[in-house]
Amino acid sequence: MSREGKVISFINMKGGVGKTTLCIGIGEFLANYRNKKILFIDVDPQFNTTQTILDIFNLEEEYMDTYRENKSIRKLFQTTTSITDKPTLPNPEDVILKPDDHPNMHLICGNIDLIFDDNHGDGAKARRIKKFINENNLRREYDFIFIDCPPTISFYTDAALTASDFYIVPNRIDRYSILGIKLLKQVIDRLSFDEELNIKPLGIIYTMVDNENRQKAQKLRETFESTDIVKEIDLFDSFTYQVNDLTVGLQGNISSRYKKSREDIEKVSDDFLNRIEGRYTE
Description:
CATH superfamily: P-loop containing nucleotide triphosphate hydrolases
Strand order of the largest sheet: 3-4-2-5-1-6-7
CATH architecture: 3-Layer(aba) Sandwich
Order of helices and strands: EHEHHHEEHHEHEHEHHHH
Structural class: alpha/beta
Number of domains: 1
Strand content: 5-15%
Radius of gyration: 18 Å
Largest sheet: 7 strands, mixed
Helix content: 40-55%
Distance between the termini: 16 Å
Shape: globular
Number of strands: 7
Number of helices: 12
CATH topology: Rossmann fold
């Protein structure tokens, strides 16, 4: 059976919610333990996904020497030198890292210099990721394409969402958690109207749940879940607990590498597959 991969944005307009850790965690687990082929696309100027994946690939020095300038997401958004020139997209081999020892995990590197390139309002450029995926039939090569989005309203947020079939909202329960969800919904509603998108929510995933303050967290959670916008986006049954090793551990922020977080990411990843392959398959 031919592959028909799905494109999923990991996004929240509020920072500090564990977005990148969840994106990497699910993708790495699916690649290494569920035999799924994953392409990570990093459009967050903080490029934390890139740093973590390059550590897995043992290619940190190559990034600083070569990939940052010549093989990153910026190549998809290069401008022409003349108004009469036709824009062209790079070939996949020009931007996708495909290490031989990690056949199920590939990467389009992020770049801190994205902060200088924001072209908000340029609808044509905001369609570049989608065009790159479609023109190169990447859905047939990958089971899932995961896009790590910036936690802000930006041109790159538009580009990621425009390319996506679904979006996942990592969310840390606190008194301000609903604000990021509301902003995100406004962005998606605007894009859906302007670009006639058919992007769907896959759900909200609670991250970094504090197991020691259950009573306080439960009250915040009840308030959060009572809002119409949360009911519309829906909630995953599974979630991740706060695990300090993911932040300070010697093995980096890879969920499957730590006993305390591996069980969490396995449940979340299988929940993800069930939603994709069952409820949302069309």
